[in-house]
Specification:
The chain is mainly α. 28% of the residues are buried. It has 13 helices and no strands. The protein is globular, with a radius of gyration of 22 Å.
Length: 272
Amino acid sequence: MRIRFVEPSILPGFGLSFGIGIAYMSLLIFIPLAVLVTYSMQIGAASFWQTIIDKQVQNALFFSLTTSFCAALCNLFCGFVVAWTLARYDFWGKSLIDALVDLPFALPTAVAGIALAYLFSTNGVLGGIIELFGEARKDFIGVCAALVFIGLPFVVRTLEPVIEDLDVQSVEAARSLGANFAQTFALVILPSLLPAALTGFALAFARAIGEYGSVIFVSSNIPFESQILPVVIVGKIESHDYVGASVVGVFMILVSFVLLLGINALQKWGRQ
């Protein structure tokens, strides 16, 4: 008796497509990650745990998560405004702005870091103002600005097609029944946009956690204060502690996977 867990597709070629897909993901994702985990475990479970609970690693993790979350939250709000403007309005210069949104995809992150470093420097436009908050807050603001720059396109490009396909008749029906703007947005518009908004937030958050090129230019990278996890990994590699770098890398993968798994569960709840 043959057991099928799912209904077969009406399109042929599932076996070939599935095989090619698994082989492609194995070569690019599964095998490299398995090698990294195997290499990091050669120091033993006790040393592995001691490397993870190191104070420098924990402070870098906290700084990475807080800056990434704040940047993703800012991108969620600003990205919605930009996506709504591009999707619902026609104005002069729209094509230029639409092209500029994708600029962080093509621009090297180091270029963005250099530009922001000059902007937040002592002689920069915003440097003198931000220095009033202290060096630690200056680093936090600078890192968040860099992460907002690289993460904005993920939110805009995720929300824009959903906003374009928004059911205008439902909005007009709610307004005709006496609903004000806040009620219409909360009860009609927001539920339709919530899954896409959570997806954009997750993509921006995941991109921010692994960012390195722009952050090293805008932050002083002081250990225990303004150091992110990728900088810790690079520091261990430069000191020839390759096993320690792989341990921190595995830890970073686990943290990112758990966070994305939670966000995906939240997305599923939003769709329902």
